[in-house]
Structures are given as structure tokens and as C-alpha cells.
Amino acid sequence: MLCPVTTIGKFIAIVSSLFGVAIIALPSGIITAGYLDELRKKDEEEEDKEKEKEKVIEK
User: Fold this and answer.
1) DSSP character for 3?
2) Alpha-carbon distance 51 to 59, whole Å?
3) Helix (H) or strand (E) holding 5
4) Which alpha helices (DSSP H) does the chain contain, by range?
5) Phi and psi at residue 6, in whole multiples of 5°?
6) Angle at 33 between CA 35 and CA 47, to 5 degrees
7) pLDDT tier at 59 (50, 70, 90 boundaries)?
């Protein structure tokens, strides 16, 4: 089997697995936050347009 046996090997395995998770998790969180921010902006713009249309119809 390919698993660490020595203490230093186990430590290196733990550290490398944590770095591996961080390399994937951090960028995906940042990208998702940016994507959600853009969706909120788009929704707000659409709501503003609808409100302007309602004002024009009322007049």
C-alpha cells in the first residue's frame, strides 16, 4: 500500500492534503462569490428598469 508509515511521512501527508484542499477550495469560493455578486447586480438593474417602466406608465 502507498500510505505513510513514519511520523514525518504522516506529517507531510497531512500538510500536503491540507494545501491541496486549500488550492481548490479558496479559488472556488472567490469565484462563486464574484458570480453571485454579478447576479445580484443584474437583478437590481432589472428591478430598476421595471420601476422606471411603471413610472412611465403611470404618467
Assistant:
1) -
2) 13
3) none
4) 7-58
5) -80, 165
6) 55
7) low
Written as nine digits, the cell of 45 is 438593474
Whether the predicted model's global pTM rises above the 0.85 cut: no
C-alpha cell at position 52: 422606471
Identity (one letter) of the amino acid at 6? T
> pLDDT (tens digit, 9 = 90+) per residue, 15-37?
999 999 989 888 999 999 999 99
C-alpha cell at 12: 507531510
Q: Which residues contact 10 (CB under 8 A, 6 or more apart)?
A: 4
Residue pair 10/4 in contact (Cβ under 8 Å)? The answer is yes
User: To the nearest whole number, what is the mean pLDDT of the chain?
Assistant: 90
Look up residue 58 and give its amino acid.
E
